[in-house]
Structure of Cryptic loci regulator 2 N-terminal domain-containing protein:
Amino acid sequence: MARYHAFYVARSDGTLETTHARKTERNEPTPDQLDRTPDANGVRDYYREIPEDEQKHIDWRRKLGGMLMREIGKPEEQHKGCILAALPENYRLYEHIKQSQDGDKKSAKNHAGGGHDRQDAYLYGHPQGRKKRFRSPADYFPHLLWLVTDADADPNNCTCKLCCPEELQGEPKPPPVKELKENSAPPASPKPKGPIVVIPRRSSSTHASNSTTPAATPATTPATTPGTQPAEPVVRPTSANPQLPTSHSLSLPDWQFDMQYDSLLFRPGEIVWYDRGVAWGLSVIIRRWVTRPASISQQSSKNYIVQPLNYPPQYPSPVLMTLESSLRPWLAWSPPECTIETLRRPDLTFDRIDWDHLVAVFMNGGMNGDLGVDASILAAKMIDGTYTLQQLLSTTNLGPAGTERRWGALFLGAEKIWVGEPVRLRQPQANRAETVFVVSAISERIQPQPSYNPASTGSSSFVTLFGDLYSLTHVPCSHPSAIPPNPRNLPIRMAKDAAVRANASVPVRREAGVWRLASARVSKPLSEIKGRWYESSRLLPILHEKEVYEDQIKQGSVQDTGVWMNGRGDSLSRRPHQGDSPQNIGSGVRQAERKDALGRCVPPGLAINDSLNEPNEADLQGVERGQQQGQQDRQVQDQQQHQAVEGFDPAGPGLEEFMNLESMEGDTAMLDGPEFGGQTGAGFY
């Protein structure tokens, strides 16, 4: 049985009796509601108090304890299971039971529903009387949070639905539904389902205007030119437990582009491996674009400009990469050890090295190895341990509970993650199911330190991702036209990737992989995020040998890309595949801007351009063209991958010599002798 840490709530506003119009009544269901006598039809409709030792009472307290820990607990305590030792004084939990005459013969379904026709729980005790009852733990939690955190005990500070109804919160009422009369004009184009988060328009003005206030309205205004600063969002009070959006649309061209299946795989600001011709290097993407074909017979090309990582002040020129297959995610391979023995110390990081002194010693022959190679490895590891929040959507004043900020994206280690897209999670080794977490909100909670702790000052901030868990379920299917549909709100990339994989599996295995909602409205700390989710039908053709991927297609079993990917923080553990815990990284080191995370491994003033527009000749001055040796054989692969929905015939370099697989043994998995990549010299650098 899991161990839970108990919370004791010292304050309560609960009452056993209330007085209205000089009449005192019990703060509980009425005597008629408590009467269990069946009616003429043998139906019993009554309320009963739930004892503390019953499962439903325990469930309520466990859920409230978990939510309370997420709100007021320290980041390092977020993993603990918590439970309320008891409900606040004078708060009592009742359940409404409606049982038909044959109800006693029914078998119990579960602790929530039992075997009755109706069995709902309500929490009584609110000082406004029995008609003000809470219907769920989530309903009661804002009130509980106010009890715990408000030093003034002022009910006006409570943001729960009973103390602060929607009418007082200024929430807009839904417009009345108008009946569509005959011969009337057809309705306008349907709006996207669910609320749509709108990022403030990017403007060159230095002042915010009312038009830039974030709102849950359709994004109909064209986005302005990327690259300018967003206006400051307006701070507005709202409930301490706001509803999470179910779907998202950000008014940014790069967000809309990245949500598509056949978009560019990599994003500006991300750390990637890049093909230098006979070896691979580490770099940061500073620009990307798609070159449209001049004729229908030609294919569009995907282009990137990367800045190689190096030690200061020696910075190579940016490199133009015209083949997407010449790039790899940072997490696709495990980095080798540093060539200079002194730099192999686990406590030595890129930002702690005196590079001026080290370069001088190296140039004088005091060290053997490749300083540029080692610098890029240490730089990538340093960046892997950082995170940066991006695109502020809204700021909410939660009163005594602090402030909540909602963000549209974040850099997590080497990768950029958007709201509305799937990510990989760290899961127990026994859990082999293909499960992903679709991010619906990136929440930063800033709360003041409790006043009863004299040693603490200021405020603390922690980041939580909210979203839904989806699992890939394999169901019998005899024909591609009979593949069951995916959930309606599933991201397009996930749906299309599942369709490609199903088209391969149905003819051979008579089964199809379909995404199913496993858990809704789940919260995850940054430490549980393993990295971006990549479409298997897009990335595997790049990672695998051609024969390997073709064999998977023939067998009708295209593997999950996540099996072949490392996780964020794995590189900080020397041998993560042999038991070292990469989760020690926690949330990582927060950096205000991406340039702060990159530090001195790139030239000062390096610009990361989010524009998708093709650069002109002036923009490409000083940019070197990527090495073509070793890349020409992948040109066909890129063209085939463009037709992903119909199938794949990929080609690419071998992964085994680079990847940190669980089957590898010993520290020599990545290195063979003094040369990188083995005796042939063909490896990382």
